């Protein structure tokens, strides 16, 4: 039976009622009835078209934002940074990338962000731009004029042990030991027919127009037979001092140090068992930019290998005398082969009798382990914050793979904490500035991050590699990150606020032997076993995306070569832009003469902000020069 329905019967209500009647499904398919020309009780919004969700800025977006901000503020006076410079537009720009920058660079407040943006605007490439003359101040703006020493003021006055122990050190003047050596170091440059000969402690100026470059710098020969162990720079007002530690070759020892090395890093020596004590010197040189370097005084000691020298900030005492002005007394810590970490007070005033040596008989403070052997150490200093006293601690690494934390305001006999880190020897330690976090390396090729404020041992493995030599580690404050090697030819970084992130910075053709970092800027120096010295912008490297990483660059500044037949060292200052990381680069198996290897690289953080730096090779040749 069929039912006829007229058009007048088809109303909205009828259609709705009909939709409620079940319909027989003969095809086993679901049939859905739709209401025609009906109005729903609730109006549904039309479906939005799909749009891809905007992601937070990634690395290369961050760089675009920084460069955009720099372009808006190029006409600003860069130094010093004032609150007036922080415009609303800049705050909006930086707030968009605050979280990313906080993780990668270690800070996100507007003052540090603007300072970092200006650092990057100054050094947008892998090589620093030429210095800019500021007509308003009649001076040259070089690097950021910020000295870490300015953050520390009362380390001695608030430290009981240091204050009470300053009079414990005795220094005696004795006639110099006369040691005449007929051997000289021979040096040449691009013109190999022109050979320069330097005797011990002789200084020469780098000739003009070397390889077509006008290089301002000097070379010091610390001695062909003596062996330099360590060096650092001390800056005070308008004076810069070069502190050099070296071992003195004994008269009855026919071999030079380069002939009897145990390893190519000069970390240990095959010492003659007949020699009960090793004579060492701590020399203080002054850099006079128009003249060269002048040897001011020499401290003699019998402490053996005197290395890992570190300055204790907040301990400087300025004084003047008849001979010179702006002299300074300072505290210097060092690791000695007497199995102790010791603190000494030295000064930069010229000696009353240049023919005499100053004998270091004992130190101000001395830390020695009872049931373990010290292998390395690091000072941990925190500046005065919120009326808290400046703290001074020492973290000591041992042969048994332990870290010992000492508070120099309490005791040098009993450690505050002891952390078991590894089964192998701790080879190096570096602490983050104003932080209780340290990074240490082991003889087994491991890199650990340790939080010393923790109650229990919390060593986190950051890296483990198949190594040729133990990894080396450094801390850089622009940006806040740890830099470490794999023991061969690769350099890695890990941001302080993202320590689980490990990324490669650079690869070289030979083993990276040393790193030179600064508290004033983001450029790191790298020295290799083949005698190369390179520079890389770490801020640009960390902020660049992985996609664009293959285009990041570094600059090779200098290279030492050696003619083993003529026994002549050649310094090549030709600058060459190279790719920072090249996966095809492999570690060279054939090495140069070990005297070419770079022992250390140092930035000279003078108050003028000029871009001076130094590097020293294993043969005891120091080069002091600058970028411009």
UniProtKB/TrEMBL annotation:
Lineage: Eukaryota, Fungi, Dikarya, Ascomycota, Saccharomycotina
Organism: Hanseniaspora guilliermondii
Highest taxon above the source species: Eukaryota
Name of this chain's protein: Transcription factor tau 91 kDa subunit
InterPro entries for this protein: WD40_repeat_dom_sf (IPR036322)
């Amino acid at each position: 039976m069929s039912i006829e329905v007229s058009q007048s019967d088809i109303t909205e209500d009828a259609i709705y009622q009909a939709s409620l009647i079940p319909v027989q499904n003969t095809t086993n398919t679901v049939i859905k009835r739709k209401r025609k020309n009906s109005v729903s009780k609730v109006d549904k919004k039309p479906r939005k078209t799909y749009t891809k969700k905007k992601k937070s800025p990634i690395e290369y977006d961050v760089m675009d934002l920084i460069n955009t901000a720099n372009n808006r503020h190029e006409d600003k006076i860069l130094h010093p940074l004032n609150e007036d410079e922080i415009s609303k537009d800049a705050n909006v720009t930086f707030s968009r990338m605050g979280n990313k920058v906080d993780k990668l660079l270690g800070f996100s407040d507007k003052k540090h962000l603007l300072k970092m943006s200006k650092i990057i605007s100054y050094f947008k490439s892998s090589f620093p731009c030429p210095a800019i003359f500021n007509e308003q101040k009649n001076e040259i703006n070089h690097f950021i004029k910020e000295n870490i020493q300015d953050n520390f003021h009362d380390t001695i006055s608030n430290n009981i042990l240091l204050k009470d122990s300053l009079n414990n050190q005795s220094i005696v003047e004795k006639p110099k030991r006369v040691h005449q050596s007929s051997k000289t170091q021979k040096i040449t440059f691009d013109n190999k027919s022109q050979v320069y000969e330097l005797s011990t402690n002789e200084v020469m100026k780098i000739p003009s127009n070397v390889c077509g470059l006008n290089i301002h710098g000097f070379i010091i020969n610390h001695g062909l037979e003596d062996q330099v162990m360590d060096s650092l720079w001390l800056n005070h007002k308008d004076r810069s001092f070069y502190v050099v530690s070296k071992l003195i070759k004994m008269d009855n020892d026919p071999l030079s140090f380069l002939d009897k090395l145990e390893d190519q890093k000069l970390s240990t020596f095959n010492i003659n068992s007949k020699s009960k004590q090793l004579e060492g010197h701590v020399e203080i040189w002054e850099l006079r930019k128009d003249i060269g370097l002048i040897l001011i005084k020499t401290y003699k000691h019998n402490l053996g290998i005197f290395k890992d020298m570190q300055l204790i900030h907040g301990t400087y005492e300025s004084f003047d005398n008849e001979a010179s002005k702006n002299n300074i007394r300072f505290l210097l810590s060092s690791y000695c082969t007497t199995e102790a970490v010791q603190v000494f007070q030295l000064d930069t005033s010229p000696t009353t009798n240049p023919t005499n040596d100053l004998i270091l008989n004992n130190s101000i403070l001395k830390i020695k382990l009872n049931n373990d052997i010290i292998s390395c150490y690091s000072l941990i200093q925190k500046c005065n914050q919120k009326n808290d006293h400046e703290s001074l601690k020492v973290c000591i690494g041992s042969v048994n793979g332990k870290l010992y934390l000492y508070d120099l305001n309490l005791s040098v006999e009993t450690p505050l904490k002891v952390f078991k880190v590894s089964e192998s020897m701790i080879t190096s330690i570096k602490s983050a500035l104003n932080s209780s976090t340290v990074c240490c390396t082991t003889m087994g090729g491991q890199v650990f991050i340790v939080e010393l404020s923790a109650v229990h041992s919390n060593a986190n493995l950051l890296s483990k590699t198949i190594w040729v030599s133990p990894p080396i580690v450094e801390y850089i404050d622009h940006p806040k990150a740890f830099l470490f090697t794999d023991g061969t030819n690769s350099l890695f970084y890990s941001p302080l606020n993202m320590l689980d992130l490990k990324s490669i910075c650079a690869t070289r053709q030979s083993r990276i032997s040393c790193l030179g970092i600064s508290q004033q800027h983001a450029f790191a120096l790298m020295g290799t076993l083949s005698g190369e010295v390179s520079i890389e912008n770490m801020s640009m490297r960390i902020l660049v995306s992985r996609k664009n990483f293959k285009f990041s660059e570094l600059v090779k500044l200098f290279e030492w070569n050696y003619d083993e037949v003529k026994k002549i060292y050649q310094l090549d200052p030709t600058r060459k832009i190279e790719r920072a990381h090249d996966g095809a680069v492999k570690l060279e198996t054939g090495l140069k003469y070990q005297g070419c290897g770079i022992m250390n690289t140092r930035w000279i953080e003078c108050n003028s902000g000029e871009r001076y730096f130094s590097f020293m090779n294993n043969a005891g040749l120091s080069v002091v020069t600058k970028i411009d």
